Amino acid sequence: MTDHWDSIVDVLVAGSGAAGLTAAIAAADRGLDALVVESTPRWGGTTSVSGGGLWMPANPLMLRAGGFARTGVDPDFGRGRTVYDNYYGDPRVKPNPNLGPLEKGPFRAFRVHPGDLGTKGGLLTDEHARVLREDGGAIPGLYAAGNTTASVMGRTYPGPGSTIGPAVVFGYRAARHAARHAAGDPA
Predict the structure, then answer these.
(1) Which residues have CB under 8 Å from 175's CB, separation 6+?
(2) What is the 3-state secondary structure (H, E, C) of 47-104?
(3) Would you tell me how many other CB atoms lie within 10 Å of the CB of residue 14?
(4) Are 27 and 65 contained in the same domain?
(5) Is 150 helix (H, G, I), strand (E, B) or coil?
(6) Which of 17, 35, 89, 171 has its CA at 20 to 30 Å from residue 163's CA atom?
């Protein structure tokens, strides 16, 4: 183990949850040098206690679910049978707005474990996951996603797992924005 920790990186990701790992992967995919740091003894941040399994591309369950997406019928869990399910589905996906095939990579995997966690407060961010000052302006170079941020759903909680999706999406958006900024695009 070394006592010398100085590093120069393009993207420093604080937190190894879904948002942080997604940001690091997206940054690395765009040629940036990303470093993930975690302040807790558990790698995976809050995501490590808030999901329920290990997703691996092209596993037998995924291939079976791909068949469900083509037929629009999920005999295992009945996804998409109710008005409630369809309200949260993607109306562009046919024949069932809750079932879409995952057929083209690249795919990434990370372990998710069961738990119960959500947030009703945190840092305010914009559409690029940039942290906002009290006056609404973005703090240059500071991004946040996941359970460190205010919920994108305001004061509502649609249901279990609803913090993971925004964490991944905004981690990805943060990395894309940081990559564009590093390449000289001020947007």
Answers:
(1) 11, 22, 23, 24, 25, 26, 27, 30, 32, 34
(2) HHHCCCEECCCCCHHHHHHHHHHHHCCCCCCCCCCCHHHHHCCCCCCCCCCCCCCCCC
(3) 15
(4) no
(5) coil
(6) 35
- Encode pLDDT of 136-171 as tens digits: 999 988 898 887 888 877 777 777 677 788 888 999
Identify whether residues 42 and 130 lie together within a single domain: yes
**What is the per-residue pLDDT across 28-72, written as a single tens digit (0 to 9) for each?**
888 888 888 776 666 666 555 544 444 555 667 777 878 888 898
Give residues with Cβ within 8 angstroms of 83, minimum separation 6: none
**Structural domain includes residue 53:** no
Which residue range(s) make up the domain with 82? 58-104
> CA of 10: how far to CAs of 21, 70, 131, 180, in Å?
15, 41, 18, 12
- Which of 138, 145, 148 has its CA nearest to residue 172? 145
CB of 182 closer than 8 Å to CB of 32: yes
DSSP H/E element including 179: helix 164-182
